[in-house]
Amino acid sequence: MAMQSFDFISANQEYVFNTYGRSPIMLVEGNGLRVKDSDGKEYLDFIGGIAACPLGHAHPALVEAICKQAGKLIHVSNIFHIEPQIELAKLLTENSFADKAFFCNSGAEANEGAIKLARKFFSEKGDTDRYHVITMENSFHGRTLATLAATGQTKYRLGFEPETPGFSHVQFGDYQALERAITQKTAAIMIEPIQGEGGVRIPPADYLSKVRKLCDDKGILLIFDEVQTGMGRTGKLFAYENFGVEPDIMTLAKGLAGGVPIGALVATNHVAEAFKPGSHASTFGGNPLSSAAGVAVLNEILSNGFLDRVRIMGGYLRSRLEDVAVKHSVVKEVRGLGLMQAIDLKVAGADLVNIMRDAGILINCTSEKVIRFLPPLIVTGAEIDEMIIILDASLAKITD
Q1: Out of 243, 254, 275, 369, which one is annotated catalytic?
Q2: DSSP assignment of 35-55, as one string?
Q3: Residue pLDDT, tens place only, 269-318
Q4: DSSP helix, strand, coil percent of the chain (3-state; round to 5)
Q5: CATH fold of 3-58+305-395, please?
Q6: What CATH number does domain 73-301 carry, 3.20.20.140, 3.40.640.10, 3.30.470.20, 3.40.50.300?
Q7: Is 243 part of the annotated catalytic residue set?
Q8: How far apart, in whole angstroms, are the C-alpha atoms of residue 222 and residue 290?
Q9: Report field, pTM of the whole predicted structure over 0.85
Q10: 17 catalytic, yes or no?
Q11: Pick the catalytic residue: 102, 103, 140, 373?
């Protein structure tokens, strides 16, 4: 059978687990924000791999780094020193609050590692009863059993009971509820500085600083899940910089290596030292290929003017979305920060996603009614304008 006659989309149903509500297209190539499907149709990508492609598609620096490393060494065990891994750890720690980095393969694994580190931190001090972690309602921290329990959305946990014990959830932004939830067993508070899957929700202005003080006063660790908000997405390298608050532990993934699977757990020295040889491990975590990709991505993001431009484009995207919102009563609100923006609709967003896709724009709906815009950080004003024209026309077809 000739490869070009093979129906991959139909074959997906036969050979691949049915775990995703997939769009009826197959993307096969891309450059910048432009992607093409298997029929040759072109789209403007405002999903960006769900914030995993900060440099867009086929970025020359990333392609060069991956090809160069693949020609030398793709993988070795972490029982050996790995040069690109050390380089990536150095870049992350020198440009954040952290002193040490641990690498894994995904955001869920990074968050699992953060939970383990918090428990181990207190266990090392002889306080073995400090295992409780408080997270937020509408949060999303991953699909492992522990990170499902940490996730503050019941729908993701259905069918996977009994829930992993040791977690409780409070309303995002409600300081009094958080304060009441603390017990003698609380080891950590785990928060997304901006909720992503929860609908691009930003906390009250003083909330994170109050949480930091609360953690200090109670001797509790503060974990920031920056899997979606990190790597320049908000116009700062890490979202916590926008709020003037530093955590004890931070998790990263998605955009860290521009689409190559990698996750990272970073922490201050006094917390990181709780992990000893044998405490935690990952076969592929921080291998030469993914780490080299991460170094290339970080160097681009840290290059002169890159983050300034993200802030400018983020402000422009926000203003254009607000221009459109006032014209359409179906839009309740525009919210977000940097190039992490959203429109909250009065109706389900699935139809709008389909209409936009048919018109050549890829967007994403989360929380049923929130249209999320996560374009590559290299997006231009002209590309934003192109998307906005189609969004305006598409919203006119949606009624509240």
Answers
A1: 254
A2: EEETT--EEEESSHHHHT-TT
A3: 999 999 999 999 999 999 999 999 999 999 999 999 999 999 999 999 99
A4: 40, 20, 45
A5: Aspartate Aminotransferase, domain 1 (3.90.1150)
A6: 3.40.640.10
A7: no
A8: 27
A9: yes
A10: no
A11: 140
